Amino acid sequence: MTPAEVKEYDRLRSARKRDVRGRTFSPRKQGPSGRLVRHLQLVNPRGDLPGRPRTRVECVDGPRPCPWVSCRHHLYLDVNPKKENGSIKLNFPDLEPGELTGRLESCSLDVADGGGASAERVGEAMNLTREAVRLIEHQALGKLREADWLDEDDS
User: Fold this and answer.
1) Residues 122, 80: Cα–Cα separation, whole Å
2) Residue 30 domain-assigned (yes or no)
3) Is residue 154 part of a domain?
4) 3-state class of 57 per DSSP?
């Protein structure tokens, strides 16, 4: 490969696989999106829903895509704790939760059960670029080292 071909290959590889980026809603914002987040924080704050699995054993053979969007392992949305900012991020704003099929997994535990995944694969599952996944991994490893849960030579 020529240097120009390598550069183009890297650009295509690291690019976002989907055209639509995730969308974040903050409760501090005024207007419809802020009211939506504040309303969702009041509805069932503990997340106890009848029939919802409580352990991995109960959900491993459950329906896919997973219907339990409020589960902390569901990839459709991310919820930041109130102590941070209480925002809600829709990872796939152009899709409904039931449309996460094929390469788009609906559960992070299903991705983890598949074994090690490349940054590209993780980015595709979370609608992030490969570089964003690499930065998150770097920050997480740094926090583990600070807490002495990981040796300096572990990576």
Assistant:
1) 19
2) yes
3) no
4) helix
Number of domains comprising the chain: 1
For residue 70, which of 92, 41, 103, 99 has the smallest C-alpha distance?
A: 41
Q: What Å distances lie between residue 65 and 86, 105, 107, CA to CA?
A: 26, 7, 8
CA 48 to chain centre: 21
Token pair recorded at residue 57: 């054993």
Q: Is residue 122 part of a domain?
A: no
Count other C-beta atoms under 10 Å from residue 25's C-beta: 20
- Reduce the DSSP state of residue 8 to 3 states and report it: helix
Report how far residue 94's alpha carbon sits from residue 16's, in angstroms, rounded to the nearest whole number.
Answer: 15
pLDDT reading at 14 higher than 90: no
Tens digit of each residue's pLDDT (9 = 90 or more) over 67-114: 888 788 888 888 887 767 778 888 888 888 888 877 678 888 888 888
Token pair listed for 110: 């299903």
User: Which pTM does this prediction carry?
Assistant: 0.65
- Residue 99 phi, psi (nearest 5): -95, 5
